[in-house]
Amino acid sequence: MKVSAFTIVRNAVKFHYPIAQSIQSILPICDEFIVNVGDSEDRTLDLIRSIPSSKIRIIQTQWNMRKGSMVLSEQTNIALKECRGDWAFYLQSDEVIHENDLSRLKQWMQRFLKVDGVDALRFKWLHFYGSYWRYRIDAGWYQKQDRIIRNNGQIESYGDAFAFRRRDGRPLCSRPTGCLLYHYGWVNTVEDMKGRCHNAAQIGYQDANKLQSLEGGWGDLSRFPAYFGTHPLVMKDLIARHALSVQDWASVSRQFWWNPLFWMRLRHKTSRRIREKIT
To answer: Which residues contact 182 (CB under 8 A, 6 or more apart)?
Structure first.
């Protein structure tokens, strides 16, 4: 079994996306990693080149921003076409996998390698928000998605690269892995987040309500569920330098010192979905 990984990235340094950590998080179980680097205004290309791995193969492209959010799926499919593995593992530039899940994911890929009816493997999302110790489960924040797809030429990215579909129009058949995908797209300073949102809005990717919600800062983070578990090791330094998260962890520790899940540092996401939008 051969496993390819692929991603797209543009202006990751300028907007502080953890692309290096994202790539490094799954390199151990990949035979190759295709990185589609768009024409950037910063040192993104140098950053990718600095990652010490012979598995990484860089392709450079010009992104036609006039295509709106469709440019994201277009560029994703360009990277996908370069993949040579039986499976193609897709991560966006703010998505990271925990090292404790790698062997389990490899087992899932091996298990379904010869099962033709299975098109993709699905993850449970942890959308961290404001702090590395808070996440969102309310309306408007999707909670599961496919990120490992069978590389048979029959599956493609579409729209704003949120998901995948079969080219023949049949429903995509997925199997849940039970593993978490750590989404860090909404953890940064408020000013950096506004920059990201404005940049994404230029191609119609982010909705205006999410940008509006940041006008007054992150607000009271305690209105969101607390995360007690560990993070991927590749994120250790970024988390330690994030002032709001350091402050919030102290608050979480005071509030939940009695909770067994806190002491176990269990990587757990509540199954209780909040249907209304939290502002």
So the answer is: 95, 96, 97, 98, 126, 128, 231, 232, 235
Please state, in angstroms and rounded to a whole number, the distance separating the CA atoms of residues 248 and 226: 10
**pLDDT tens for each residue of 17-44:** 999 999 999 999 999 999 999 999 999 9
Provide CB contacts within 8 A for 255, sequence distance 6+. 222, 226
d(CA 187, CA 121): 26
Instruction: Give CA angle at 172 (167, 177), nearest 5°.
Output: 140
Of 204 and 156, which is predicted with more confidence? Answer: 156
Whether residue 183 is predicted with pLDDT greater than 60 in this model: the reply is yes
Q: What pLDDT, on a 0 to 100 scale, did the predictor assign at position 68?
A: 86
CA dist., res. 172 & res. 121, Å (int): 10
Q: Quick check: 149 and 164 in contact, CB under 8 A? A: yes
In the chain, the largest separation of any two C-alpha atoms, in whole Å, equals: 53
